[in-house]
Amino acid sequence: MSSSSSSNQGRPRAGTSDGFQRTRADHATELAEDYVELIADLINETGEARTVDIAARLGVTHVTVANTINRLKRDGLVTSQRYRSIFLTDKGRLLAATARQRHNLVVDFLVALGVPSADAEIDAEGIEHHISDSTVAAMSRYLRNRSD
Q1: How far, in Å, CA of 131 to CA of 146, rounded?
Q2: Are 135 and 142 in contact (CB under 8 A)?
Q3: Residue 23 to residues 9, 14, 28, 29, 105: CA-CA distances in angstroms?
Q4: CA angle 120, 68, 59 (to 5 degrees)
């Protein structure tokens, strides 16, 4: 077995049905991660997360936010009451912290490669949801070894 095939063991190959399924699964979690991360940021910045604030930050309608919040409630990530603030559950806080940590790692990695900070922030928004755990680990090792 060649080294390239053993290093990809257990990982879907690009262009295969397994690869496409992974991409679809990544897209399914991307929205939830973005919302819980934003909710956590709003709570930290202003003490509350309101539908109107989420809509303004994301550039979507309050109806879109309300529909997504209902899905997040169903998934056990947030709680809210009509005309009240939105709160993260323990599960939601954990997902937000994990998403934020991964986002920051991707930004730090891109900046270490010479990408301007503003571009790295924008690029990380897409990349952070689609990288494997092994890629995250490799990025982290790279940054650690670079600073040693």
Answers
A1: 21
A2: no
A3: 17, 9, 9, 10, 20
A4: 50
Between CA 63 and CA 22 the distance in angstroms is 29
Residue 87 CA, distance from chain mean position: 18
Domains of the chain with CATH codes: 25-147 (1.10.10.10)
**What's the mean pLDDT when you consider all of the chain?**
85
Per-residue pLDDT tens digits for 79-106? 998 878 999 999 999 999 999 999 999 9
User: Which of 75, 80, 74, 73 is closest to 51 using CA atoms?
Assistant: 80
- Residues in CB range of 33: below 8 A, 6 or more apart: 95, 96, 99, 128, 129
Across 16-30, 55-69, 131-145, least confident range: 16-30
* Mean pLDDT on 24-35: 76
Residue 78 in contact with residue 39, Cβ under 8 Å?
A: yes
Task: Give residue 66's identity as a one-letter amino acid code.
Answer: A
